[in-house]
Amino acid sequence: MHSRIPRGSSSEPGATGGASDGGTDAPSYTNPFDDLGSLEKVQDGLGRIEGPVWWNGSLFFSDIPNDKILRLDASGALEVFRQPSGNSNGLGIDSVGRLLACEQSNHRVTRTLADGSIAVIASEWQTHPFNAPNDIAARSDGNLYFTDPGFDYPATNGPGFQGVYRVGPSGGPLELVTSEFERPNGIALSPDERTLYVNDTFGAIVKAFPVAEDGSIGQSQPFATTAPIADGMCVDDAGNVYVTTLDRVQVFSSSAALLGEIPVPDVPANCAFGDADRRTLYITAGKALYRIRTGVPGKPF
Questions:
Q1: Of 72, 121, 75, 117, whose CA–CA distance to 94 is shortest?
Q2: Which residue in 85, 276, 279, 301 has the fewest CB atoms around it within 10 Å?
Q3: What is the pTM (predicted TM-score) of this model?
Q4: pLDDT single digits (tens) 15-39
Q5: Residue 252 lies in a domain
């Protein structure tokens, strides 16, 4: 539907600096625009959709105003997985394969257990309810990281700042990573899990945080400046960072070089890789869901 707009190669030095994924077993493919497909609209006429994640052979995503988590299976059939969802936004998968949800109107982060019940991971900071958790990233050792900007359903007695948080393995302790963002939004980990990326929506900047062996977070560094309205993010297996902006998905190498852009006709809100080979990039955009085949598979589920 829309042609790619390539911007060089992954070997270019980044103009804004950044953190490399640092893997010792880096794949030979690096640039997703080398074999990019055409953008395809998969679904339309939904509510404002967000938070896609590939889980158990299907794509799951949030329909925020309709208070649902939807499931799109491999055949293209769409069904309601959970309603109400707490007007969920970002979804994720934890280290043992359970669905995570940022429930905005419930001001909490939860996981879905094997029996279908919902377990609360975190719901407040020092007795104050979260603003409205937005997006989440999970590390393979059990650490969870989430943003809390309070866009859609802000708490009346929230923390008083816009935070990024960490929940340690086995459910605790809850730690404030930073309150330096005006509106922290998208969040993602590099393939080697040594770098945490967080963007600031209206600041249109992605910052990179070093992640220690135990999952604790160090001081941020500017990674890349994006087009206006930075929103959701994901990372591929080569360490490239995908950022949804007002009218396109921008793709940066792990050294912060802008590799190219994928124009989207609706306002893209978030993105995630899916399908069995992890080479399909799914994009939630307004009331529509899009997908496009890429030259590099996404970071493993």
A1: 121
A2: 276
A3: 0.91
A4: 333 343 434 444 457 899 998 999 9
A5: yes
